[in-house]
Design a protein that fits this description.
Chorismate lyase, 7-stranded antiparallel β-sheet, 6 helices, elongated, DNA-binding transcription factor activity, Tscrpt_reg_HTH_GntR, transcription, UTRA
């Protein structure tokens, strides 16, 4: 006689669905059994079923779509979008993103003054607290299907003895041309990590529960490795992978 399962019913439901998603019984992108069907199968109420689904949403294995139901998300599936990373210079001297995506700012970025926090000051090799020009933008593409949060930082010390002592420099990517016009030969280094989003980031990027974001830091450097500017990109991490040409 098999041992009796002593786990709470919601955990049994979560384990059953998790195993089905991982072994392909419930394919990625397909709807899971309805709450009513699961409640009948396990002899529980619908709130108990929802508790089990909440556990799976927190681990990123299911996605609830309003009015349509709950759908499987496989950790083994290929992402729906691959974005090449990098910056290239066109024949007319303009700098463009390697992915070729044309981003639109939800609102025109406005320069604000911020003080460099310790972590960013270390990357920029400036004293913590040094003032910086900062631009924030929510950017969209493909009729709003693609979204990213983009922040540009330019330390004041980089702009000494230039025309930008009197006026704010442009945000990236126009910033690259402005820096090149000042005589700098530019190259770039990116740092990529993942983490769970803050509530306002999840809302802006329309992230489902349990979906992480990719946090990309891009440092613009001179040929002599002096940092000139830093950008932060926050990207939805659920159906996205980044590719780098080495």
């Amino acid at each position: 006689m098999p041992p009796k399962n002593t786990q709470p019913k919601y955990r049994q439901i979560a384990d059953y669905l998790r195993e089905g998603i991982l072994d392909g019984t419930f394919p990625a992108g397909q709807p899971l059994p309805s709450e009513d069907a699961l409640a009948k199968q396990f002899g529980v109420t619908r709130p108990t079923v929802r508790q089990g689904l909440t556990e799976l949403r927190a681990s990123g294995l299911v996605e609830a779509i309003m009015g349509r139901g709950t759908f499987a998300r496989s950790p083994h599936g290929r992402p729906s979008l691959t974005r090449p990373r990098g910056v290239r210079r066109t024949s007319d001297g303009q700098y463009v993103e390697a992915d070729g995506i044309r981003w639109t700012d939800a609102e025109p970025p406005v320069a604000t003054r911020t003080d460099a926090p310790l972590a960013l000051a270390d990357l920029l090799r400036i004293p913590p607290g040094e003032p910086m020009f900062t631009y924030d933008a929510l950017q969209t593409a493909d009729q709003g299907r693609l979204r990213q949060l983009h922040r540009t930082y330019v330390p004041f010390s980089v702009l000494i003895d230039t025309k930008y002592e009197e006026e704010a420099p442009p945000p990236a990517p126009e910033l690259y041309t402005a820096l090149a016009d000042l005589g700098h030969e530019l190259h770039f280094t990116e740092y990529v990590r993942t983490r769970m989003p803050l509530p306002d980031q999840a809302q802006a990027l329309r992230l489902a529960d349990g979906v992480p974001l990719m946090h990309v830091l891009r440092v613009t450097l001179t040929e002599a490795e002096r940092p000139l500017a830093l950008e932060e990109f926050h990207l939805p991490g659920g159906e996205l992978e980044l590719s780098f040409r080495l």
